[in-house]
Amino acid sequence: MDIKQIIGEIVAGKQEVGGIKQVYYVACGGSYGAFYPAKTFLEKEAKDIKVGLYNSNEFVHNTPKAFGENSVLVVASHKGNTPETVKAAEIGKKAGVPVIALTWLTDSPITEHADYVVKYTFGEGKDIAGEKTIKALLTAVEALNQTEGYEHYNQFLDGVAKIDHIVKNACKHVAKRALAFAKNHKDDNVIYTMASGAGYGAAYMESICIFMEMQWINSSSIHSGEFFHGPFEITDAEIPFVIQISEGSTRPLDERALNFLNRYAKRVEVLDAKDLGLSTIDSSVVDYFNHSLFNNVYPVYNQALAVEREHPLTTRRYMWKVEY
Ligand SMILES: O=P(O)(O)OC[C@H]1O[C@](O)(CO)[C@@H](O)[C@@H]1O
């Protein structure tokens, strides 16, 4: 069953009780970040459907009161075995809420508590349109289109059809810059990321899953709009930033932050979605494709950084090794 059919079945099943009123996205770490575009999509485009994005353990211990007969729960876990995400799915299943599980390993614990299991693409040469981020977005787009209606549905599907090509070209485009970045930053003990809008999740993932988890470099993902409300005080010629300049409605926030960095910082890596080819996607929907672009361009930098620092991306000292 594809996502359109899954949502169709859920919508039909909820007709008697008043339809879908809330969609909850629940996951941890990289999977949590991948839900960011779906969350921002429903926040902005839906009039009647409410959306929640939760860390799994927060959802388990602080379950929203509205979670119930009008809800849909979408969980994601790459290997399907993160205990708090499995628990969140179990809570959904027990409450009779339809649970959609996005996972790469379909033979995993999370699938025991899922009504619908959706496998996504992953790894070398993957189809970007089949990734977790786009699958999650499609649950949001279908939920909206099949209830309130979504005027830019066709433009969105056209964006899905274009994203793989755009991302693969962009990765080639940054290859040289990524090598230079890796050389320039190999000895840094802090690198900040900055972003806004639907693409913010990519900056969050780069900070927590790559710089902190996989490279043991201090980091924080600063929201471009929030930069001027505290973080900008740490700016100087030595402090490194990676800034995402998004395409779409929040671009002015990113440009304002970049203008400031251009005056007071010296070590700024600019990832501009416009330069990277995202503008071929219709402006009515382009916001929601920033994440897929940035999140797939970062690995070109990450591989180069890992080689230069002689610190493989697979190295962990605590994760999956000790009790936590
Ligand atoms: O539940 P998932 O998606 O398998 O995530 C497990 C782990 O993978 C990461 O997303 C990346 O290693 C971590 O943040 C997280 O703890």
TrEMBL record:
Domain SIS, residue spans: 6-151
MF terms (GO), sorted A to Z: carbohydrate derivative binding; glutamine-fructose-6-phosphate transaminase (isomerizing) activity; hydrolase activity
One example of a Gene Ontology biological process annotation: protein N-linked glycosylation
Pfam family of the protein (one): SIS
Keywords assigned: Carbohydrate metabolism, Hydrolase
CDD domains tied to this protein: SIS_1, SIS_GlmS_GlmD_2
InterPro entries (UniProt xref): FrlB_SIS, Fructosamine_deglycase_FrlB, GlmS/FrlB_SIS, SIS_dom, SIS_dom_sf
Extent of the signal sequence: none
Entry keyword annotation includes tRNA-binding: no
Entry EC no(s): 3.5.-.-
Highest taxon above the source species: Bacteria
Entry function: Catalyzes the conversion of a range of fructosamine 6-phosphates to glucose 6-phosphate and a free amino acid.
Quaternary state and interactors: Homooctamer.
Record protein name field: Fructosamine deglycase
Naturally occurring in which organism (per UniProt): Paenibacillus oralis
Phylogenetic classification of the source organism: Bacteria, Bacillati, Bacillota, Bacilli, Bacillales
